[in-house]
Amino acid sequence: MGPIDALNHFVNFFAPALFVAGALWGVARLLPRKAGKKKAPRAWLPFVVNAAVGSAALVAGLLLFGRDGKMASYGLLVVCCALSQWLVSGEWKR
User: Fold this and answer.
1) Three-class DSSP labels, the chain
2) Which of 55, 65, 69 is nearest to 19 (CA)?
3) What local confidence, expressed as pLDDT, does residue 42 receive?
């Protein structure tokens, strides 16, 4: 495997985490905020946190199952990103 092929595999391994993080970031920006909320997190912070958490979930799935592409890994990705989005948004403080 050459360096271009290795880079392609590396990028495609983390692409689902980046896509889910971007989708959550986009949808969260469209939702209305509470009027009494003091300060919203920086615009890039939820994307970065969700991408990091999602990447960690995919690596955990790879280590647990020994291969990439298991639906359980993708389910873990979605659950972990949803949990981190909830924590970053501050909705748990209600």
Assistant:
1) CCHHHHHHHHHHHHHHHHHHHHHHHHHHHHCCCCCCCCCCCCCCHHHHHHHHHHHHHHHHHHHHHCCCCCHHHHHHHHHHHHHHHHHHHCHHHC
2) 55
3) 76
pTM: 0.84
Pair 21, 51: CB distance under 8 Å: yes
pLDDT at 94: 64
With tokens 């300060």, the residue in question is 39
pLDDT band of 39, cuts 50, 70, 90: low
Report the 10 Å Cβ neighbour count for 57: 23
Alpha carbons 2 and 35: distance in angstroms, whole number: 54
Residue 21 is encoded by which pair of tokens?
A: 């993080």
